[in-house]
Design goal:
single chain, alpha+beta, Jelly Rolls, Arc Repressor Mutant, subunit A, 4-stranded antiparallel β-sheet, 49% helix
């Protein structure tokens, strides 16, 4: 993707209007921060704030303020066939307005892209290209996280579950029970487990086991701690529990693993 021009947090008065029946010779992304009026297939649509639209090259563009102020982030860019395939794989809709809910993360990325675009820093074009890829991946995540709750609440719940996973992998020695984790998020246990797996593709117990085994492997490789100490620091009740799970998952005992290093 090649960025042509970009605007961050641009504001316009009530008379603002864009009317391009033949579109442009580039793609246009709009992150819409205030209510606005769009025309799609000849139909006038009033869209909510915190929406987006991705116009393809040549697609008709009509949008205007809906109220005293119109604010958006935007950028024009060109794509090659590989970029088109990339956006298609991410299942991002084109030429239609879509509501997102919380857009703060996406807007921050656009802010960073705008900074790089206007800077003379080394490798800024490479940085911009990576930012654009990350931006569309993050946009796709936002669209398809699949949480079974209203979109206003989805972002908060998603972030909370992200923090649960960070906790699992950073503090395996003090992971609460699945029931307690669900309670902390004000969720029932079954809903928590279902949502966790839907987001990460693995169930929570698998992550807990992997986290404990990773900590045990790290300690076996970098310390001379006893198995009892390693077990305690990895979240196991006993060295026997550690040995049994280690052997079952990795095919060798902790002692055999350490000797092979």
């Amino acid at each position: 993707m090649e960025l042509h021009v970009i605007g961050y947090n641009h504001s316009h008065d009530e008379n603002f209007v864009i009317d391009r029946p033949g579109g442009t010779d580039s793609w246009l992304f709009l992150l819409i921060k205030t209510p606005a009026v769009f025309i799609h297939n000849g139909i006038e649509i009033v869209t909510r704030e915190n929406s987006f639209i991705l116009y393809k090259e040549g697609a008709p563009q009509y949008y205007r303020a809906c109220g005293e102020l119109y604010v958006d982030d935007w950028f024009h860019f060109s794509v090659d066939n590989a970029d088109k395939d990339f956006i298609s794989r991410l299942n991002i809709p084109c030429n239609t307005v879509t509501w997102l809910g919380d857009i703060s993360e996406l807007s921050r990325i656009i802010h960073n892209i705008a900074y790089e675009f206007h800077s003379i820093n080394p490798y800024n074009q490479e940085v911009i290209e990576h930012y654009l890829n990350i931006f569309f991946i993050k946009l796709s995540r936002k669209l398809h996280i699949g949480l079974q709750c209203p979109l206003e609440k989805a972002s908060v719940k998603y972030e909370n579950i992200i923090h649960v996973r960070i906790r699992i992998y950073s503090m395996p020695q003090s992971i609460p029970s699945v029931k307690e984790m669900a309670k902390e998020l004000s969720m029932c246990e079954s809903s928590f487990q279902h949502t966790y797996k839907k987001i990460f593709g693995v169930n929570v117990m698998t992550d807990i086991i992997n986290s404990r085994l990773q900590r045990a492997r790290d300690l076996l490789a970098t310390t001379d701690f006893t198995l009892d100490s390693i077990a305690a620091q990895s979240g196991y009740n006993s060295a026997f529990h550690l040995m049994r799970q280690f052997k079952g998952k990795l095919g060798v005992t902790p002692s055999e693993y350490r000797k092979a290093l």
